[in-house]
Design a protein that fits this description.
- It is a single chain.
- This protein has helices at residues 2-20, 211-214, 308-316, 350-355; strands at 26-28, 34-36, 54-56, 64-65, 78-80, 88-89, 102-104, 112-113, 126-128, 150-152, 174-176, 198-200, 222-224, 232-233, 247-249, 257-258, 271-273, 293-295, 301-302, 325-327.
- With 358 residues, the chain is of the alpha/beta class.
- Helix content is 11%, strand content 15%.
- The longest helix has 19 residues, at 2-20.
- It is found in: Secreted, Extracellular space, Extracellular matrix.
- InterPro entries: Cys-rich_flank_reg_C, Leu-rich_rpt, Leu-rich_rpt_typical-subtyp, LRR_dom_sf, LRRNT, SLRP.
- Belongs to the small leucine-rich proteoglycan (SLRP) family. SLRP class IV subfamily.
């Protein structure tokens, strides 16, 4: 009879677990740890088994994420809320989710994130807030996210980043802010995220290079500034992270020139995208040494001896780019690598280059 009671209690447990899978959802994985409720017409956050580790609620209808809406899901690691018509995230919306690592809020209509919205998310590592209508981020909003590693904020309506906006998120390494309305980065905007490795600021409204904000960054490896109306890259633009910078995107801007020492301190750059600008020259200290990929087409290059290092690089690399001179007039349309304009130029020697370094 003891054996029978044991069997019955196991069956009772199984039945209660099966019953715990919410209607309109399906559950699978050992112990039904994965609860899938995508595109189920839900208007309220469902009750799920307490052992749930992954909850997929995308393509539902939750205009407001309420306070304590997920409080009993203490073992949740991954939460999918993409395309769920969310407009507002309440204070304490994710309270209790201390084990959550992945939070997906892509493709909603979020315009309001109340202070304290992200409290308790001390294990959160990946946060996707792209494709929303977020106008700004309040100071301290991200403070609870002490383990945040990747933050996606692309395709929103962010106009400025206030100093202290990233305080607390000291481990942030990848920050995506593409396709927003940023006109400026205030000097203190990046002071809490000096360990960033990847920063995408393309498709914004930056009209000058934010040299003060950028000088806080120490180990940046990839910087994307494409499609901003910046005309000049100033001296020492990349110096604070010059030993780490490997990939630079400055294409499709209105870029006219680099200051003479724009690339001071840059020693390891492998890839630079400079196409579709208004450049006529490259600065004398342009870092060709480690360069593997360089795109320079659709610029009005002026073919004089200052471009001789570029010609040497083009000849030594099997690039297919047909980059041509615009001026002087007699060389117009001639490929930079073959034009007679550069044939008799003397290349600067290493020694003279070293002497000119500061």
């Amino acid at each position: 009879s003891g054996f029978l009671l044991g069997v019955l209690s196991v069956l009772a447990c199984l039945v209660s677990t099966m019953q715990a899978c919410p209607p309109s959802c399906h559950c699978h994985g050992g112990d039904l740890q994965h609860v899938i409720c995508d595109n189920a017409g839900l208007k309220k956050i469902p009750k799920v088994p307490e052992q749930t580790r992954l909850l997929n609620l995308q393509k539902n209808n939750f205009p407001i994420l309420p306070t304590n809406g997920f409080r009993d899901m203490k073992k949740l690691v991954s939460l999918h809320l993409q395309s769920s018509r969310i407009k507002e995230i309440s204070t304490g919306a994710f309270r209790g989710l201390k084990s959550l690592v992945y939070l997906y809020l892509t493709d909603n209509q979020i315009s309001v994130i109340k202070p304290g919205a992200f409290e308790d998310l001390s294990d959160l590592t990946y946060l996707y807030l792209d494709k929303n209508k977020i106008p700004d981020l309040s100071k301290g909003l991200l403070s609870p996210l002490v383990n945040l590693f990747i933050l996606h904020l692309g395709s929103n309506k962010i106009r400025e980043l206030k100093p202290g906006v990233f305080s607390g998120a000291k481990d942030l390494r990848w920050l995506f802010l593409s396709d927003n309305s940023l006109t400026n980065l205030l000097p203190g905007a990046m002071e809490d995220v000096e360990n960033l490795a990847v920063l995408h600021l393309d498709k914004n409204q930056l009209s000058s290079y934010p040299v003060n904000a950028m000088s806080k960054l120490r180990v940046l490896e990839e910087l994307k500034l494409s499609q901003n109306p910046i005309e000049v890259i100033p001296d020492n633009a990349f110096q604070s992270f010059g030993r780490y910078l490997q990939t630079l995107h400055l294409d499709n801007m209105k870029l006219k020139k680099f200051a003479d020492n724009a690339f001071a301190g840059v020693t390891t750059m492998k890839t630079a995208h400079l196409e579709n600008n208004r450049l006529t020259q490259l600065p004398r200290n342009f870092p060709f040494d480690k360069m593997e990929m360089l795109t320079i087409s659709q610029n009005p290059w002026h073919c004089n001896c200052q471009l001789a290092p570029l010609r040497k690089w083009l000849k030594g690399n099997r690039t297919r780019a047909e980059d041509t001179c615009s001026t002087p007039a007699q060389y117009r349309g001639q490929p930079i690598r073959d034009t007679p304009a550069l044939r008799s130029c003397k290349l600067p020697t290493k020694r003279s280059r070293k002497g000119s370094r500061h």
